[in-house]
Amino acid sequence: MKKYYAYMLLTENNTLYCGYTDDVEKRFTAHIQGKGAKYTRANKPVKIVYQKEFENKSDAMKEEARIKKLSHSAKLTLAEQGN
What we know:
By secondary structure, this protein is an alpha+beta fold. The protein contains four helices and three strands, in the order ββααβαα. Helices cover 43% and strands 29% of the residues. The longest helix is centred in the last third of the chain and has 12 residues, at 57-68. The protein is globular.
């Protein structure tokens, strides 16, 4: 069964990018190569700081939307907690 993930990346200028995918490592590589989102082409990602697994795409997308509404400090707290 395919798994989906919500994830956050830390960029070199200390911003956070949030997304969802079915393969976090592959997506991270795409972001680094400039083939990910427009935001990560301009703000180079340096590491994955958060990822959470879901049974379906819908739940991963809902988590992504929830995270995007958080303040920067709340996102950092979430990253520090791991999940």
